[in-house]
Predict the 3D structure of the following.
Amino acid sequence: MAYNLLKGKKGIIFGALDSKSIAWKVAEKAYEEGAIFTLSNTPTALRFGELDELAKKTNATVIPADATSVEDLKNVFEQSMKVLGGKVDFVLHSIGMSLNVRKKRVYSDLDYNFLNKTLDISAISFHKMLQLAFKMDAINEWGSVVGLSYVAAQRTHYGYNDMADAKALLESIARSFGYIYGRERKIRINTISQSPTMTTAGSGVKGIDGLMDFTNRMSPLGNANAEECAEYCITLFSDLTRKVTMQNLFHDGGFSSMGMSWKAMEMYNKSFNCDCNQEKDNVMD
Ligand SMILES: NC(=O)c1ccc[n+]([C@@H]2O[C@H](COP(=O)([O-])OP(=O)(O)OC[C@H]3O[C@@H](n4cnc5c(N)ncnc54)[C@H](O)[C@@H]3O)[C@@H](O)[C@H]2O)c1
């Protein structure tokens, strides 16, 4: 059901690769809610992904960019303002990649060139976008910028590797630039910390199946999926959240506030072959 929450709004959506991508779902929802926008991803992603299909469906123009290149990003903002007929109201940064993860370099044996790449692609690109848009005055007053993060920025998660450091940096950039944008332009900058989600990036996380089962058992509301994440993004792009800024907003069914749940404990107890049904009656909370 659509509510016209983004009627008349213009935006840029970075990071839709295929129909599983969080950014893909955001584009679909933004379109349903009345927004017009451009889509951007790397030339490689454009070759191997399915972005043209999404562009067709949502009447969007695709502008290629490697998000680590200031020149490419400048072109995205310039072209977007041209195509959309003025400044934008929202920007989605839905970009992440670690070569250390891809090449199976563990955290105690990082390749530092790869680490620099991880930080550049997954976090510094957010600063590059924000700095460019600030200098170009490319975002309207009461506009909204959202980046996607993960709870490994605060709490150590086995196997998340150097992406944890990238997410910590991403969230810090949102706060630091959020202050400047709020003060100077009345524009809000937030990150959403999303549940583990089965996307291309998500499948790269070590033990994703077990992790998703664990977080689902730990979260009183269960894992949040990509579509639900998109819905949350839409609220942050809408005028209903105009005073929310500099926040890292957990969208994880309650996972980040849990220490241990009955459902997770039940599973854990199974490994001791205990009588879990009996436990259930006594220790559900
Ligand atoms: N899937 C999860 O479990 C999960 C959980 C929390 C946060 N996130 C974050 O959500 C965001 C979107 O990921 P997703 O899960 O939709 O996976 P995805 O693989 O669909 O999206 C990642 C995107 O990053 C793009 N990208 C990689 N390098 C780039 C570069 N140099 N320039 C521009 N774009 C580049 C890819 O082409 C891809 O479109 C990422 O920041 C990810 O870390 C994902």
Notes: Residues 15, 17, 21-23, 41-42, 45, 66-68, 94-97, 121, 148-150, 194, 196-197, 199-202 surround nicotinamide-adenine-dinucleotide (CB under 6 Å). Strands lie at 10-14, 36-40, 61-62, 88-93, 139-149, 188-194, 248-251. The CA atoms of residues 191 and 248 lie 5 Å apart. The chain has a mean pLDDT of 95.
